[in-house]
Amino acid sequence: KLTFAYTEQAEYSGQISLTEYEKYLEDYGFFRIHRKYLVNSFYIKEMRSDSLTIDQDIELPIARNQRKAVKQMFMDAVERGIC
Q1: What is the pLDDT of residue 43?
Q2: What are phi and psi of 13, to 5 degrees?
Q3: What are residue 81's phi and psi, to 5 degrees?
Q4: Listed residue (54, 52, 50, 44) closest to 67, CA to CA
Q5: Taking the model in full, what pTM does it have?
């Protein structure tokens, strides 16, 4: 399976799993919101109970079983000044 990463500058693809990316990037403000999405908290514009919006008004779903953890991670990021 290919994994895709989108940045402001480019789009990348590779054979690295999202779980591996998650382990590598967790100390850099990234967290998992869904089995398909890992998000950099620096780019979150708005958070709702079941989704969040990142730059360029891209709305992404938050998995039902991740909502409580995502909300807590987001609040921690806000307190640390990341968001």
Answers
A1: 87
A2: -140, 150
A3: 80, 15
A4: 50
A5: 0.80
Q: Is 39 left (phi over 0), alpha (psi -120 to 50) or beta?
A: beta
What is the C-alpha separation between 38 and 9, in angstroms, rounded? 17
**Angle (nearest 5°) at CA 26 between 20 and 32:** 75
DSSP the chain: --EEEE-SS-EEEES--HHHHHHHHGGGTEEEEETTEEEEGGGEEEE-SSEEEEGGGEEEE--GGGHHHHHHHHHHHHHTT--
Q: Is the pLDDT of residue 50 over 90?
A: yes
Q: Binning pLDDT at 50, 70 and 90, where does residue 83 land?
A: low
Q: Are 33 and 47 in contact, with CB atoms under 8 Å apart? A: no
